[in-house]
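> Could you send the ATP-dependent DNA helicase RecG prediction when you get a chance?

Sure thing. Input:
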Amino acid sequence: MALPVHLPTRQNCPMPTSAQPLAPPKLSAPQKALRKLGLVRDIDLALHLPLRYEDETRIVRLRDARHGDLVQVEAEVTHSEVSFRPRRQLLVTLFDGSDQCVLRFFNFYPSQQKQMAVGARLRVRGEVRGGLTGWTMMHPVVRAAGGDLPASLTPVYSTVAALPQAYLRKAVLAGLARADLSETIAQPCLDQVNQLASWGLRDALTFLHLPTPDVSLSQLEDRTHPAWHRLKAEELLAQQLSQFEARREREHLRAPPLVAARGGLHEKLLSVLPFGLTGAQRRVGEEIARDLSHVQPMHRLLQGDVGSGKTVVAALAAAIAIDAGWQCALMAPTEILAEQHFAKLAEWLSPLLQERGQRVAWLTGSQKKKARGEMLALIASGEAALIVGTHAVIQEQVSFFKLGLAVIDEQHRFGVQQRLDLRKKTAGSGGEAREPHLLMMSATPIPRTLAMSYYADLDVSTLDELPPGRTPVVTKLVAAHRRDEVIERIRSQITQGRQVYWVCPLIEESEALDLRNATETHDELAAALPGVAIGLLHSRMPTADKKQVMAKFTSGETLVLVSTTVIEVGVDVPNASLMVIEHAERFGLSQLHQLRGRVGRGSAASACILLYEAPEGGRLSESARARLKAMVETSDGFEIARRDLDIRGPGEFMGARQSGAALLRFADLTEDADLLAWAQQAAPLMLTRYPNLARLHIERWLGGKAEYLKA
Ligand code: ADP
Ligand code: MG
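Output:
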């Protein structure tokens, strides 16, 4: 007998080891689709949970079916015909020994007709309808009767066109089988939650992909089954671990300690301010001063409603940094806002800095090359102690002499990458690498549940008090057809020496249309209010023109400012007492709130008028109504934020922070508050006592995305 000889075949022939690189394997369409859905690693596949389930485990007798049930029956074809009334259709009658049912097909192939010939035994799955006139099913799934019934419910996954359900199902179950799902939660942590230990991750996932038919579907759907609990607990723990880890990593980083000296620059600044600080500003200022004095970099979010006076808090922090011999950079999302900061900070700080031979620098993308070069030199030499600008501040060419503190205004308008870039601007040159302290400011308060989860690695200071002398803004909803009354109101405000904003919505699809809109409104108001100086501010205007328009309004030369949402942030004109927002239903809630914050800054009674218009022939959408209602009912920024979260859900609320980051997919911060509290307790324990498990857990759940949660 011949011995088997192994001849080199295409399969087992060793790969050529020549220098020629191997072409990357070509991906099939479904493979590409998997990748697009982010289903790359085995664990990604295992965590791709079904949208719903179909029950193919049972054969139902027709007599026991109820109208509307999705059932599977086995029956024999007793009659088959193609009918032409009311239109061409195939009608197939089945009898399963208990009752009969007519299958109806409007589209069918000859092969199907053959499959369903009289006498054939079929297994049919579909929704039964009817009753009195007998059962019918439209376009059911049909195959030959017999064969094994599956032991579990059939999962149905969310997918895309290029990825057939059957392919995806196979891939997911294969991923589940291969994935490393060893226990990563330490026993003492498991023991703290009921049933957590008895449902391991593998058990939970296997169950959720292939539930046994006896399970209550409602428990699966409302996510209250213990398998769901396990999954949510895992997810929340991963999130908390990554946040706690970020915090611990920061503890190992070094920043220059910036200690506020007695009689130092910040005290001098306080003495030249035209007002005294509010209690909240004092408290927050102390929190920041304490952070700055530490050798760990500060990572603090200063949240305070529009008009709560965040700028002066930032100025005081800058003064401490400068006094300690370091530079401070302040970055704002738009040029107009940066300009306003520059004007204000220069007014307060320039005279004081001058005495020390220092100054405030201005940096923006639209700057002339020469001016920019001068600024860069000032920044590099350290003569510029405070640098104010747009994102130009973090560009590569900018090299600081000794950056000790970075302030980001309206932080949510910056991308994650920009914040990471800023942190990479190391403080000082040479010696050990040090990070600048980081102060982020936001007028959009973060609701508590979000703060506890997504922002757990941040320290948060809150300005919960407005400066004195503010008058509450009265908010009114006015239908668009009452525009004339609104114009009358503008007239009366102007007669009283007040100023008015009129905001037109930005039309995303068409900047040209958007400009026309604002221009038309401008002309309309000019015609209605002869002799009144009216400015027009539009996002497409050259920066220099924008500045001019803004300056005229600030000085009171123009009395009405028509603008697209460029005035959204930061603008400060205390004499303005009326804000009109056209098509208010198109704005987001926090945007409306920010716009409204532009008035009510002086002592005059102020109002905000929300002009709304339902789309032609329709009604305002549910969420538009909820937004307008919230605006009328409250002016409390925290309440607004809470309602905004309700209306939009955390995904959108988080804005830039979640881009590319792991948002919670399974847990719900409101419903799973208990599990969140558990995860917050468990995370530090895991990190100190079970660091290996913790690392595995983070890697499994977040993969490469953890970085984003730390920015
Ligand atoms: P925001 O928090 O929205 O950035 P700003 O810093 O622009 O608010 O402050 C709004 C206005 O209130 C500015 O004109 C500022 O000078 C003024 N302001 C800030 N703090 C006080 C205070 N303690 N007393 C009086 N006015 C203040
Ligand atoms: Mg501000």
